[in-house]
Amino acid sequence: MEFLSELWRFMRARKKFWLLPILLMTALFGGLIVLTKGSAVAPFIYTLF
Amino acid sequence: MRILGISAFYHDSAAALVVDGDIVAAAQEERFTRKKHDAGFPHHAAAFCLEAGGCDMAGIDHVVFYDKPFLKFERLLETYLATAPRGFRSFRMALPVWIREKLFQKGLLRERLRRIAGGEAWNGSLLFTEHHQSHAASAFFPSPFERAAVLTMDGVGEWCTTSLGVGHGSRLEITKEIHFPHSLGLLYSAFTYYTGFKVNSGEYKVMGLAPYGEPRFAGLIKDHLIDVKDDGSFRLDLSYFDYCTGLTMTNGRFDALMGGPPRKPEDRLGQREMDLAASVQAVTEEVVLKLARGIARSTGERNLCLAGGVALNCVANGRLLREGVFENIWIQPAAGDAGGALGAALAACHGIAGQPRAPRHGQRDLMKGAYLGPEFEQERIEAGLAAAGARFETLPEQQLIDATAEALADGKAVGWMQGRMEFGPRALGGRSILGDPRSPTMQKVLNLKVKYRESFRPFAPSVLREDVAEWFELDGDSPYMLLVADIAEKRRRQMTAQQQALFGIDKLNVARSEIPAVTHVDYSARIQTVHADTNPRYHALLSAFKARTGCPVLVNTSFNVRGEPIVCSPADAFRCFMGTGIERLVVGNCFLRKEDQDPALVQDYKDRFELD
């Protein structure tokens, strides 16, 4: 819950509510990837992290 | 007020403890875990900081993390969105890491802090500073200046890649930023990748390679890759780069422009790579100079503070000093992300907690010579060495200095571990391998038999501060080895026409000065001035070497082999001593000769570490 409230405060502070649907899709999509994949190790690319 | 700064989860994790504005301790996690650029939570480094500060987590008022994960995620999302569908593969690979861990960093941090607190929940205040705010704070607050312009440059933080600001007393204000994807650090990293080195660790090799080449690609870079304005602001042409959407730094268009594919790691280095290195170095220097001139004009300040990974480019720093854009320059010794831990703590101390910054009265800086890491008492050193099976003798101070100076004058490679470990990427006489700079073979011997690294790489000199102007074209402090200057004219040797005609690495085999081991092919040297007040024992050693040889200079390279973090403990030092061609080891007051050691303890050390 704390995470969601912070995310909400972040979007308010940055005035980026348009990110909300993208975030929802990302969470759905990401959840699927995480559930269907064993490893969360990404390759070492400079800007990914 | 006690503030613990943390940098982690990207590369070069570190912790730093600031107590009432005083920097008490700082260390990188890699030194404890022995894993180069360790990105994990800095458990050991934080535990060390607490021990050094004589407190536990209950005594910590604030913990400050060095960047803002939500802002970084926002950058990722918007970048992928702007480039979709091209970045889908990279997006798919990045997402699980974020969904599992990085988005929930606050909870993760609290959980890790609980472990340090011995399982007790830690409910103190957990703060986050922006990445470049951390860098800027690490540059200005410990600096010797009451007021200064501040310039930070690196690959990327959240959005910011370059920031300009002004510091005055306890106030630090960022006035201008350049945002991702336009980044001087990433341009340099693109060439690091293209010349066959590892991004994020091979940048200093590109810098070392540059003097062997001619900047014949500089025009091409400025015509096609980067558009630099008069005030130093710049934009990259992203059609040549792959880092926004792909899994490499550059793309086919970049290859076509530069006339070929990237060099494969460990392939032979040719003149082309040297010319590429010289070119990106020349362009970087031009941009840094323009940025500095721009900020000098807009702020009217006479002092400049630098931090961020690009500030580790000591060749550009030296040029900045020589060009006289600012009267004084100070560079944070831990300018990379490790220093973000310190900057985060200092930003919170002065910016959030509102603690006043002590007035400056002409003193040097507050970094204590960067000797902020762990130190070992003589009893612990002896116990550690004995447990490792070492044979040593314990000498009184003066005898120890004399024996070490004698060994160095004899041309021996000496491992030197004294006092507190350095914070930042440079060994400054706390964890160093030392040699005689007058020897024409020392550079090659150290590179190939001691450090097991590429033969083109130069070594840096340590010189008594009081003698620096006698040997180098520099008459100021450079305690952190972050300024490059030329060898003094009178110390150089004339080259024959035949020697002058040599190309590339062949140039290196020619003795170009009285101290050839630390003279790069362009007569430059990355200088460390040694000061009696911050490292008296190292100062005494240099003085003893000077008394014997007339030379107040030593070769100083970090105490490690290629790919290994710098040694931390006596046991690390002994292992490295037994695995390499180091002939004498001096730890505290213990003096070790290689020939006295049990041959059964010699180990194959070279292949133990992944090459960097």
Automatic annotation (TrEMBL), chain A:
It comes from the Bacteria. It holds the Pfam family DUF5989. This is DUF5989 family protein. The lineage of its organism: Bacteria, Pseudomonadati, Pseudomonadota, Alphaproteobacteria, Geminicoccales. InterPro entries: DUF5989.
From TrEMBL, chain B:
Residues 405-594 form the Carbamoyltransferase C-terminal domain. It comes from the Bacteria. GO terms for molecular function: catalytic activity. Residues 2-346 form the Carbamoyltransferase domain. SUPFAM superfamilies: Actin-like ATPase domain. Pfam families: Carbam_trans_C, Carbam_trans_N. PANTHER family: NODULATION PROTEIN U (PTHR34847:SF1). Belongs to the NodU/CmcH family. This is Carbamoyltransferase. It comes from Marinimicrococcus flavescens.
